[in-house]
Amino acid sequence: MNRTSYPQEIQNLICICESERFSDPATVIESAEKIHSYADEICDTALAGYSDFCIGDAYFTKCDSEDCMRYINAAIQELHSASEWQLLGECYNLFGILCEHQGNVSDAIESYSQAILLVENHHLNVLGTMVHANLSNLLHKGGDNETALKEVLECRKYLARITEDDRYDYLPIQIQINIARTYVYLKQKDKVAEELQLLEKMFDSKPEQTKDFDYYLLYLSYFDLCHDADNESLALEKTIRAFHNCEYKVDYLDDCIEFMRYLKRKGNYVLLKELVKEMEYSTTSNDFTDTLMNIQDYKIAILQHEGRWGALLDELRKYHSMSLKHKRQVYNVTKVMMDMRYTLTESEKTNFMLQERLGTDELTNIANRQRLNDISDKFFDSALENRLYLGVEMLDIDNFKQINDTYGHQVGDLCLCALADAMKAIEDHDIFCARYGGDEFIILFQNLSDGDIRQTTEQLRKKLVEYTSSRNLPEFTISQGICNRVPVFYNRIWDFTSLADKALYIAKRTGRNNMIILHQENDIYEYPEAIYKRND
After folding, report:
1. Number of other residues whose CB lies within 10 A of the CB of residue 179
2. What is the reported pTM?
3. Residue range 435-457: average pLDDT?
4. How far is the C-alpha of 22 from the C-alpha of 32, rounded, in Å?
5. Could you tell me which of 487, 519, 478, 485 has the C-alpha nearest to residue 502?
6. What is the DSSP string of 55-75?
7. What does the pLDDT read at residue 533?
């Protein structure tokens, strides 16, 4: 979506949606609805998806789960259709957070997993940082702090790839707080101290960044872990002050619950009662039943502590009503997920058929076999008619099965995409590249000498090293077999592919990471070691 292509009025509305995102949800909804009306007029699916995302995000800030879910569901389908991967990933991330706040763990994991797939396939580093941080938080809630640590440390990989951007200055600090906090959960005091030192250096280098509620809560937890009563008391005062100053507590719901858990454990029911009262006020319009039930838990604990049995019975009745509402919400979210999955599956089928017609491989976005057949016929006919050289190269990834077995099929797919992108970088009007199937690819060369082909294959290898390095993929090599000659009248294109396949076999048998050019069948006998192994 190219924002500068829209009228200035629409660009201004987009700016309002982004600048007021966390501070004025009502204004965001009003502005996004105007954007959506314009998108409908010009039939712009990407812009419609953007506006629906903004509205859903604003309803999340207003703690309205039903409307949030409705608009995010619409945005997911629109953005998927428009191939707006960044925003689509943000939708899945937000949907995961929504499910998490409703206590729907399975759908939260499903949403985060969908977002991570988009992150890996489209190199969405900012989104990758956010999703892994959210997944870490979810794992902590489930008591798996070891895996939670691995997830939050994964964020550093994505942070290292983010170029300087003022919009994301807060991210490194936020992730650093999460890392230190996870070490607190694991009771590793020395590691917490190390991470806190790094956190303070970050704040020193970015004095414009404010220290918010989660920062002070982290120090309170650390001093509690260290049994440092004096510093814990001072940290408690600062945490209370930061809690009261926190305008949008929806952004710190988990921190608020953790703070109440701390006060209950310490037996500080006076402060706990004060916090519960403020949380009730802050969540009067809150529709996140899991959060409301958590607050209700602490309200019940206070009444038990005070021995107010009549009031306790009333609150237990409210808790029962909340639990029934919670079940309905979980069912509704699950139904939306199922509907969404069905819709996207149908959309993917349509896209696959469209890509087949367009001649594009779905995974790598390089030409597929159908288009290869068309182009190879044209190249062959031209070479035969004009007595030109025709080169056919077959190549594949060395030890590709080992890559899949070691790193998983998702990384294997990313390696295929890196190779395809490297091949696209060398394409021109005399060079055509396509995916043949699996990890096998074909390159056609029109009127290129052996020297020209060697030079091109070297460029391909350099590009491949560049792409695998920049995308943090495991290093891998390719083997290349090439048939290059001028066709004669009795030749067919499969004569070239057959000899190229034999050349590829020789390249594999003579050490891999190799390139072999053959001109005719008899050239095979120049490689007796490969022939011996084949016959053996």
Report:
1. 22
2. 0.60
3. 94
4. 14
5. 519
6. HHHHHHHTT-HHHHHHHHHHH
7. 42
Nearest 5°: phi and psi at 443?
-125, 130
Q: Is the per-residue pLDDT at 29 higher than 90?
A: yes
Residue 395, strand partner residues: 441, 480
Per-residue model confidence as pLDDT tens digits over 389-425: 999 999 999 999 999 888 888 889 999 999 999 999 9
Residue with tokens 């829209």: 6
SS (H, E, C) 367-383: ECHHHHHHHHHHHHHHH
HEC string of 493-513? HHHHHHHHHHHHHHHHHCCCC
Q: Which of 43, 42, 46, 53 is nearest to 3 (CA)?
A: 46
Helical axes 493-509 vs 369-386, angle rounded to 10°: 110
Of 92, 108, 48, the residue nearest 330 (C-alpha) = 108
Span 215-236, pLDDT tens digits: 999 999 999 999 999 999 999 9
pLDDT: which is higher, 254 or 338: 254
DSSP 443: E
Give the model's confidence band at 22: pLDDT under 50 very low, under 70 low, under 90 confident, else very high: confident
C-alpha–C-alpha distance, residues 6 and 24, integer Å: 24
Phi-psi region of 227 (alpha: psi -120 to 50; beta: other; left: phi over 0): left
Residue 536 has pLDDT above 50, yes or no: no
